[in-house]
User: Fold this.
Amino acid sequence: MEVVLDRDQFLRGLQMVQNIVEPRQTLPILANVLLEADGEIVRLTATDLEVGARVSVPAKVASKGAITVSARKLGEIVKELPAAAVALKVTENATVALRCGGATYKLMGLSPDDFPPVVPASPESWVSLEAKTLREMLTQTSFAVSHDETRYALNGVLFTLQGKDLQMVATDGHRLAFAKRSLGRGLGGVAGIVPRKAVTEIMRVLGSGDDVQIAITENQFVLQMPNFVMTARLIEGQFPNYEAVIPKAHPKRLVMSRGVLSAALRRVSVMAEERNKPVKFTLAPASLRLSASSQEQGEAEEVLDVEYAGEELVIGFNSRYLLDAVSAIERDQVVLDLKDAQSPGVIKSIEDEGYLCVIMPMRI
Amino acid sequence: MDAFYAAIEQRDRSELRGKPVIVGADPRGRGVVSAASYEARAFGVRSAMPISRAARLCPYAAFLPVDMAKYRRVSLEVMAILADFSPLVEPVSVDEAFVDLTGSATLFGSPLDAVRRIKRRIRDETGLTASAGLGTNKFVAKVASDLEKPDGLVVVPAGGEARFLAPLPVERIWGVGRVTAGALRELGLRTIGQLQRVPRPVLARRFGKHGHDLHDLAFGRDDRPVEPFGAPKSVGAEETFGADTTDAELLRRTLRAQAERVAAELREAGFAASRVTLKLRLQPFETHTRSATGEATQDGLELYRRALALLERERVARPVRLIGLSASRLGPGGRGQLDLLDPTALRRERLARVVDRLTERFGEGAVIPATLLARPRREPPRRDARGR
Assistant:
């Protein structure tokens, strides 16, 4: 293999795949990125056997071929190179000679034959949507993904294609975030839990402008963009019945400004106990009092004017959960629907934005 | 307290006095010794030893089951006596406590006078003997109290700590178990006096942070305060099986029952635990513990679920000798984050309150989860009598 690439394009390509490589691997070759030269491109592929990504970078290919080299080292090198042509040549014994300007490197590689194949499924149909929509929906749900490895079915975002809608749901057992968009055409009915790592990577590589295509097959999630494809093995396991968790109608509705609420929450929660950051909500007609206290540090309180006509109610929430939920809302007016101190609260925009977050209260 | 459980039994049953008494599991079974009277210790019986070994060493001893409720009652009497001498009493276990007498000197004469009066009152009021150590800090006092059991009283004068410790084996130091003792032995260090001659940096290089502690403790320096009784550190239950088992169903049922017991104890004390630890002892005698931290709970089913998740991750392949569950990181109960995906959690909480009241009235086991009901044993496959 002998190729010449533009340094900037090469770097951008590497950055799109190199985060797939885990810091510690079960197989040495998983630390490497696969380079394949053919036609007028070099394809870069990385995988951790669960999530894989491949990007094509334009190149002058003098002779085609393939090699794998350390993703981390290659990334470190290309990042420091000047904006010039980068020449790569595979020499004997799976070694790569890299030249750029006056700098030369010799990189120990591993045979491409041992690299685990990244094979995107060929789905019957793709769903195409704006990158912006995909990013928005992931922003509105990914914060609620569970980090508890023992509840592996919750370690990802549930994608559901149904009717004309794309839905995403994530929950950690304390809160549940739900996003829904109509894509305006029939999509069939499939669902799959996309692992957290893939979600994080998608959000990282998504541009703003392009259309992207996604597909869910029996065991794989696939994302396609021009010159780029990502595959993720779906999480096996039963996602909880989220529809049962979302309250249908709560009797008490609180309406307030998103900015005012989150600023006050941040101020009051300074004095809340560190682990769960509990803040007490005391509701009375037209007023909301937020208060927090910790035995060692002291206490804080703030009273807000709100639209509220219901009965008095005292309810506690983890303020981090509320801040996460509120920050995913676009418009300024938010509503918080409540029932009693032991039932979940529902937070959403006053106008339907296809988003809501259900948060279970804390007992304070 | 000296041979606490055994001494209480001897006190209450005059026919046992002067005889070897072993309190613990069934001697025909596979549990351990909880306490041995001094008469039994003469045969080499020690606490935490497999009960079967104790039975071989001392076959004519009186073997008695553990009556924890009784020992706790006596423990409270003893602790109450200590509390008369200082507000700073830190129980370490049911039969051991630190008492800070710093501020009590004027009230009771010298600290030594106070200790003598404590020992006398314990003997007069409970009929039991206690051994005491008097020193300038917790470590020295603890070592001193162990030296002249039973009914001992060892005083280490201020400034005499290093001299007092020097002849003792290194194992007397807190935190020196088999491993550290072995490592010290390799360096030719068997006594605390030999350890005192090793410069601090040498110990720090060899043992890291622990090396600094070793150096300080070797000279009898310990600045930990006596912390009056707060929360217990953990609540647990464990069981040694009659025969080592690989029966997953039996392991689950045992864990389930343990979870209910631990949860009931947590609720009784008003605590919720955020850490669950699973303990497994596998054949031949290898002990594993695994822990998980989550939301604080005092619910039996929830404790069970967390312990079960740990058990399933262990992928136990060898026969299990002992299984246990303990709950730690205790905080006040009835608080904290509620669960969104566990719709019966609040109902179980109300149920637990009812079950606790029924248990109080009708005794333990009055209400148990249906999964723990004894089930008819499955018939072994019947063989055709005529051999067909």
